[in-house]
Design a protein that fits this description.
Elements: H1 3-12, E1 59-63, H2 79-88, E2 93-95, E3 102-104, E4 112-114, E5 118-122, H3 137-148, E6 163-169, E7 173-178, H4 185-188, H5 197-202, H6 204-209, E8 217-223, E9 227-232, E10 246-251, H7 255-264, E11 269-270, H8 278-281, E12 286-300, H9 310-318, H10 322-329, E13 334-336, H11 359-368, E14 374-381, H12 384-397, E15 403-410, H13 412-420, E16 427-432, H14 441-449, H15 465-478, H16 483-500, E17 503-515, E18 520-521, E19 537-538
Parallel strand pairs: 1-10, 1-11, 14-15, 14-16
Antiparallel strand pairs: 2-3, 4-5, 5-7, 6-7, 8-9, 9-10, 11-17, 12-16, 12-17, 13-17, 18-19
Helix pairs in contact: 9-11, 10-12, 15-16
Length: 539
């Protein structure tokens, strides 16, 4: 795995990043303002697309990433298993993979608020697991408890720290007690997928290899470096019934093999289209580059001079010809950062500081900081597109007076433990995309700036007074009276981290996907890694 692995390598050390006394912030849009997935547009509901038509043929797809983890949704972190789980499992609510809009999945109706800190959710009647067992309230309680149990070290616990207790209420209702008010409750509980207690508790390792969920497809087989085979779950009674009799996902980590597979008609869709092949593929398929949050960031060791001075950090951002990086290394498949989030994000706010290319200003800032000579090694991950971008980055910097930068690329598994976590780095350029877990501003900002894991142990900004301000603002956002007030707080956070730039994006990447529109009905490319065939038919 490449891009997604970097997200997950970061994630493995972040299991407790939200275990704090305060609360996580509110996103730019609250639950009540989110529209539903599907053409009906009714809040919290979904209807199947493509006029409800089912296809007669199985779907074949080419996946870029290998099977690096199992499928248990408590622990699965690989790009391909997580994409598979979109089809195998359901939460009480779900975020549609392409639109990121919420819909009801195993929940029969919207969560009912009970007092200041309580919610009740009624389960979908008649829902069954792939082995035929009915979904019970006990299964739902168990699914949340296992994620929240610290002994299980679940990555996903960090996204639901607001949950205090989950309990059964009768035979068809689940009761939630929160630690503090959290307006995004209905969206965020989509993180937890519901599993059968009987199977998952008896043999977690076996369940990881042979998962059983309630989703529209059931897993038939999975062979590393070969393929994953799915079959339609005929007993599925939810809003996103399978529209194909089955699916086969070929694991094609070789880019040329993926391109050939879609050109030859062996598959109907591929992810991660190589930038150099986009125009060529347009002769045989639809190719679309979807704007994502996924970013390339600069991270500084703020405990080491001269990078403890924000003027030096700003100088390197102003001294970077980002558009040339985008044009030459990514062939136009990215947008220069004008905020912490991309411009099409619902919580976008143009930062008060935007780093347009200005080498004269960069030189002036270095002079103001008292830096006449600056020499350092830029460390990057060996992700292919990052390796393409890195030489263009240092080319810009080496044009600045008195600046000399060299380059070293390595696997993220070496970069973070050997250099970042140990503090033996000065500047890092690396990718990241926690939007695979959720798209709200709270989650995205908290990933890097809340708590201590990144600010203290990585970019070492925790002693700055601005760090304390950010923590206070993140806590303040969750208590905002309405979305407008919450967004105002988020804007302040975005302005502050843009101006300070201890870790800040250079660009937001576009993700190219190719598919055959003549054979796939209802297909939409994703703004994250992976492919989704939820609500898609093969004619």
């Amino acid at each position: 795995m490449k891009q997604h692995n970097e997200v997950m390598n970061m994630a493995s050390s972040r299991r407790n990043f939200l275990k704090i006394a305060g609360a996580m912030g509110v996103a730019g849009a609250f639950a009540a303002t989110l529209s539903a997935c599907g053409p009906s547009g009714a809040t919290g509901t979904a209807t199947t697309g493509a006029a409800g038509a089912a296809g007669t043929k199985p779907i074949e797809a080419g996946m870029s990433y290998a099977l690096s983890t199992g499928f248990d949704p408590m622990t699965s972190s690989g790009a391909t298993p997580m994409a598979a789980n979109l089809h195998i499992f359901e939460g009480l609510t779900e975020l549609h993979p392409s639109t990121r809009e919420r819909y009801l999945a195993l929940a029969a109706a919207e969560p009912v608020k009970v007092g200041e800190l309580g919610y009740e959710i009624k389960l979908r009647s008649g829902a069954t697991f792939h082995n035929g067992d009915p979904v019970t309230v006990e299964d739902v309680v168990y699914s949340f408890d296992r994620v929240l149990d610290a002994k299980n070290a679940s990555l996903f616990a960090q996204f639901i720290p607001f949950i205090d207790k989950v309990a059964a209420k009768g035979e068809d209702t689940v009761s939630f007690t929160l630690k503090y008010p959290f307006p995004l409750f209905a969206e965020r509980i989509s993180i937890v997928k519901i599993v059968p207690k009987k199977l998952a508790s008896a043999d977690q390792a076996g369940f990881d290899a042979a998962p059983v969920g309630t989703g529209p497809y059931k897993l038939i087989s999975a062979v590393k470096d070969d393929k994953i085979v799915f079959e339609k779950f005929e007993a599925y009674n939810g809003p996103m019934a399978a529209k194909a009799p089955g699916m086969t996902w070929f694991l094609l980590s070789d880019a040329a093999a993926r391109v050939t597979a879609v050109e030859s008609g062996r598959v109907q869709a591929i992810e991660d289209v190589p930038y150099l092949d986009i125009e060529r593929l347009k002769a045989n398929a639809t190719v679309e580059s979807v704007q994502s949050f996924g970013l390339l960031f600069l991270m500084f060791n703020c405990a080491e001079k001269p990078f403890d001075n924000k003027l030096v950090r700003q100088a390197l951002h102003y001294g970077l010809d980002t558009q040339t990086v985008i044009d030459r290394a990514l062939l136009g498949n990215a947008t220069a950062a004008s905020s912490f989030v991309q411009e099409n994000h619902p919580g976008y706010h143009r930062a008060a500081t935007v780093y347009t290319y200005d080498p004269d200003k960069a030189a002036s800032l270095l002079k103001e900081a008292g830096v006449t000579e600056l020499s350092f090694e830029l460390l990057t991950t060996d992700t292919s597109w990052v390796k393409d971008a890195a030489p263009v980055i240092i080319e810009s910097w080496n044009k600045l007076p008195g600046v000399k930068v060299t380059l070293k690329s390595m696997q993220s598994g070496a970069l973070y433990p050997d250099h970042v976590d140990s503090g033996t780095f000065r500047v890092v350029a690396a990718p990241g995309d926690p939007s695979v877990f959720g798209n709200d501003l709270d989650l995205l900002l908290s990933w890097w700036f809340r708590g201590t894991v990144w600010p203290q142990d990585r970019f070492r900004w925790h002693e700055a007074k601005e760090y304390a301000t950010v923590q206070k603002q993140l806590d303040e956002a969750v208590r905002a009276a309405d979305p407008v007030a919450a967004q105002k707080v988020w804007n302040q956070v975005i302005d502050l981290i843009a101006e300070q730039a201890p870790l800040y994006p250079i660009l937001h990447r576009m993700l190219p996907t190719a598919w055959n529109p003549d054979t796939l009905t209802g297909f939409r490319p994703l703004p994250t890694t992976g492919l989704s065939f939820v609500d898609v038919a093969h004619a």
